[in-house]
Amino acid sequence: MDATGAMTPQQDLDALLAGVAMGDRKALRNLYARVSPKIYGIADRLLRDDAQTEEAVRDVFVQVWSQAESFRASGLAPMTWLVTLTREAVVVRLRASRHNGTAVGRLEIAERLYEAGPSQADQAQMRLEARTLFGCLEQLPPERADMMRKAYLKGYTYPELAEEAGLKPPVLRAALRRSLLELRMCLSQ
Amino acid sequence: MSEPVTPPEYPPEYRPETLPDEGLQGAHDASAPADGGPLPDGWEAEAAEYVLGVLPEAQLDRFEARLARDPDLQQDVLAWTEYFSTFTDTLPEIEPPAGLWRQIEAEALGPPPPPIWRQVLPYLVGAVVGVTLSWAVFLSGVLAPGGAELSGALVSGNGAEVFSARFDPVTRVLAVTPNGPFGAEALELWMRPAAGAEPVSLGPLGPDGVMLGLPPFLAERMGEAVLDVSLAPQPGAAATGEGGFSGANAQGALRASGGLR
Q1: CB neighbours of B12 closer than 8 A, spacing ≥ 6?
Q2: No. of H helices and E strands in chain B?
Q3: Which pairing describes strands B173-178 and B210-213: parallel, antiparallel, or unpaired?
Q4: What is the Cα–Cα distance from A16 to A28, expressed in whole angstroms?
Q5: Residue B154: which of B39, B258, B236 has the closest Cα?
Q6: Are B29 and A175 an interchain contact pair (Cβ–Cβ within 8 Å)?
Q7: ipTM metric
Q8: Could you read off the pLDDT of B11-60 as tens digits, one per residue?
Q9: Are the CB atoms for B215 and B205 separated by under 8 Å?
Q10: pTM score, two decimals?
Q11: Contacting A residues, span 64-123, partner chain B, CB-CB under 8 Å
C-alpha cells in the first residue's frame, strides 16, 4: 500500500495475477487492459510485423492464463515476469525468421541510433534499475553494451554476434563474458 | 595450455568447461585468452549469459541443474532478469488492435460462459417438471395405492383447520394448501423434525399454498415432524414472535401447526 492506503501498481498487478492463477477470467481481462499496450509495444517494436506481433501477444496472454501460478514462484516483479514472457515470445519468432531467411531487412537508422542507448529524455523516465544498468553499460566499450541489447531484445546468439563483429565466436564469447563480469561488479556497487 | 583458474566460491567440479570447438585462437581482442584457455569466470558470467539467451545449448542442462540447487545462482539470475528486462523500458507503448482481446479470450478461455440464468435454467426446468410430475402422480394416487402418503391438517390457535398438507414419501413431495382465503399476511412454512427440535424453514407460503420437494434428511422424519405456519419474519423483527412460537429460526407469530400421519 502507498501512503494513502491505495494499492501500488505492483500490488495491483500482483493481485490481478493471483486472480488469474485462480481462474478468474475477469482478472485476465483487467490485466490485459492494464498491460497489453506495454506488451504489444515491445512485440511490435522488435518484430516489426503486425501478424507476428499479434500472434506473440496472443501467446503471451495464453501463457499468462495457463501459467499464472508459476509467477509467484519465479520471484520476479510482476511486470518483469510479463516482459520476460513477451521477450521469449518475440525472440523465438525473430530467431525463426532469421533461420528461415524471412527476417525483416536491415535495421532502420532510427533503430540503430536507439541501439546505441536511450536518449536523455528516455533516461529521465527510466526506473531506477534501468538508470543503474545504463550507467554501468556506459562504462563498457559501446559495442559490448550493444551486443547485450541485441542478445536480449533480438535473440542474437554468439555466432550471430561474432559474425557481425568479425570475430570468432569463442573470442567474442570470452570478451563478452569479461564485460558481463565488469557489469556485474558495477551493478553490485 | 594454461591451467583453469578455479574461482574460490565454486568447487572445481562445478567449473564450466570450455567447449572443445571453442578454443580461443586468433583473438582480435587483446583481453581475450588466445590459447584456448578458460573462459572468463564461471557461473557468475553464465548467469548473465543464461538471461541474455546466449548460453550455448549444450551447456543449458548443466546450468539449469546447478540453478535448481544453488540459491546464490538463483539470486544472480533474478537480478540479471530484472536488470535486462529494463532494456524494454524505453520501447513505446502501443494500443493493440481492437479485436485482439476476443482472439485471446477465445484461445485461452474458450467461449464465454452463458449468463447465470442460462446456466441454472436446465436445473430449474428439471426441478419444476420433476415436482409437477411428482405432484400429478401423487394426486392420482398411483404411487401410493396403499395410502402410504402422509396427510394432516394444520390447525390454528382457535382450532380451525386452516391448511391441508400431504406428503408422498416416495417422491418426497410435500404439498400444503389453504382451506380458505387467509388474508394478505406473508406466511412462512416451517418443519420441526422432532419434538423439541429447532424448526427448519421450508420457505414462503403463498395464497395458493406451496408444493416442494424435500431433501432426504427431512423427508425421512416427516412421520414424526410438526409443520408450522408463521408470519414471515420482517427485517429487524424480534427473534421470538408472539403466540408462543419460538425457536432460533422462528421469528414470526405462529398461525397454524400440525403433524402428518
Answers
A1: B6
A2: 6, 8
A3: antiparallel
A4: 7
A5: B258
A6: yes
A7: 0.89
A8: 333 333 333 333 223 333 334 444 444 565 688 899 999 999 999 999 99
A9: no
A10: 0.58
A11: 65-66, 75-77, 79-80, 83-84, 86-87, 91, 114, 118-119, 122
